[in-house]
Amino acid sequence: MTTLTLPPLSLAARRTRVLGVVRRDFAALRRSPIRMFEILFWPTVELVLWGFVTLFLQAQKVPFVVSFLLGAVLLWQVLQKASNEISIAFLEDIWSRNLLNVQVSPLSSVEYLVGLVLFSLGKVAFAVAVMAALALGLYGFGVTSLGVGMVPFMGVLLVLGWSLGLVGIAAVLRFGENAQVIAWSLVFVVQPLAGIFYPVSVLPAPLQAVSWFLPASHVFEGMRTVMAGGALPWDRLAWAAALNVGYLAGTLGLFAWALRYARKHGKLSRFGD
Amino acid sequence: MAILQATHLLKRFGSVTAVRDLSLTIAEGEVVGLLGPNGAGKSTTLHMMLGLITPDAGSIKLFGMELAQHRTEALSQVNFAASYVDLPGVLRVREVLDAFARLYAVRHPRRRVDEMIELFELGPLAKRQLMALSSGQRTRVQLAKALLNAPRLLVLDEPTANLDPDAGDRIRGLLSRLARENGSAMLITSHNMREVERMCDRIHFMSDGVVVAAGSAAELAGRYGAEDLEEVFLKVARG
């Protein structure tokens, strides 16, 4: 062991490696104005689109629509971005043919994922802050109307988004680069089932049964309850958090299995060929 | 103590046996070459040594530790460069080296990055994005990255494939000098026979996943009645 490097299993070394992932991804973002633009473009388009729908429904005297729809758009972005950003960060290592360099470094899988999660957290926070400011400026909607529930709502959606992102990464490790489409689109499977823009009661009974096993459904139902003047439904949030713990543990297991599979079948060596 | 000790490695991909009963030991400071035609199993072997591919049978010990159980400790003392691997093109040279210095938990990353920039004469390129560099310049950055942690084992897969003869010659000289000074061991694959002759203490010839001959360049040439390593290569490759 040389004195040039920290003891590899020390806390300081682990922290240095995790921050190395974050710094690298931040530097890549800083050097790529197109990526910065992309972080804000789609959320802004969606916000503007739903904002106009909201204004129209408001003119039709439909109650609560302003807060319901704009709140839903903001929270949906937390889920979508948390899922996509973690997948994109991994895919960028494949696109730049850098995955092998990362995989032969002493960076452990856990440290790599923690780095990706921390960086995605920063991007989500940035995008949501900009959208919240736009929602306030354009439509007079303040996220504070979600009350104290905003923190657990966003927390549940972030963790669910990371779980979905991990499924996307596991799919790419298992099936190769062609499975990128899963990484992009998996989160959209959640969209119709989670009652984002309408109550879950609108869904047919079999789909409602599925919906209650999605943590996001409880967040969006809870959001509507709070905005209609009701109390924060802690029981729903507790159920959503419990589901999240189960899903996160399951997807971490799936990721570990997919990585073992990729190493066994030589798939890591072939990425970027 | 052996830096690397691989014993009876076996790797199959479906019905294809990529590596069969391969054993290899590398001592401190030793430079070992893996030669063979395309598809001989060289890269699969290197990737098993780096933990990218899990062998179906056999064991790999790095610095006396089982790689499968001590991945982080073992890989912190190894580094790698290959002609078919790239670094994030959007980053500047200094940013790439800084990021990898941290991934290898280098104590003083900035100081070390400065040393590598000076060693590989990357000063004028330090603020340029990798995507704007020539392939030769990118290779120098790859090699600078590969030496950031002063590895005890440096694994190089066709390291100078993208370099012109002059740049290749200078890099070979630099790598040999660093190996001597630091006592680093190297495991190299290359299709450049002169490179292998010049750099390697010992050479393992692979064909169809099996080591068919091993020894120094002179020993192999004598054994096959050949004038040089290229002739040995042709004789081995053509059976």
Oligomer: heterodimer
How much of the sequence of chain A is in beta strands? under 5%
State the distance separating the first and last CA atoms of chain A: 34 Å
- Round the mean pLDDT of chain A to the nearest integer and report it: 90
What is Rg of chain B?
A: 18 Å
Q: What is the CATH C level class of the largest domain in chain B, in words?
A: Alpha Beta
- Taken from the alpha-carbon principal axes, the silhouette of chain A is globular
Fill in the keyword field for this structure.
heterodimer; A: 273 residues; mainly alpha; 11 helices; globular; B: 239 residues; alpha/beta; Rossmann fold; 2 domains; six-stranded mixed beta sheet; four-stranded antiparallel beta sheet; 9 helices; 10 strands; 27% strand; transmembrane helix (chain A); ABC_2_transport (chain A); transmembrane (chain A); transport (chain A); ABC-2_transporter (chain A)
Describe the structure.
The complex is a heterodimer of chains A (273) and B (239). By secondary structure, chain A is an all-alpha fold. Chain A has one domain. Chain A is built from eleven helices and no strands. Chain A has helices at 11-30, 33-59, 65-95, 99-103, 109-139, 150-175, 180-193, 205-211, 215-227, 234-264, 267-270. In chain A, helix 3 runs antiparallel to helix 5 (109-139) and helix 6 (150-175) packs antiparallel against helix 9. The longest helix of chain B is centred in the C-terminal third of the chain and has 18 residues, at 165-182. The mean pLDDT of chain B is 93. Chain B has helices at 42-49, 71-75, 93-103, 109-119, 135-146, 165-182, 193-199, 217-223, 229-237; strands at 2-13, 16-27, 31-35, 57-62, 65-66, 78-82, 153-157, 185-189, 202-207, 210-215. Chain B is an alpha/beta fold and 239 residues long. Chain B contains nine helices and ten strands. In chain B, strands 6-7-8-3-9-10 form a six-stranded mixed sheet, with helices on both faces. In chain B, strands 2-1-4-5 form a four-stranded antiparallel sheet. The chains are: A mainly alpha (273), B alpha/beta (239). Chains A and B meet through helix 1, helix 4 and helix 10 of A and helix 1, helix 2, strand 6 and helix 3 of B. Chain A: It comes from Nonomuraea turkmeniaca.
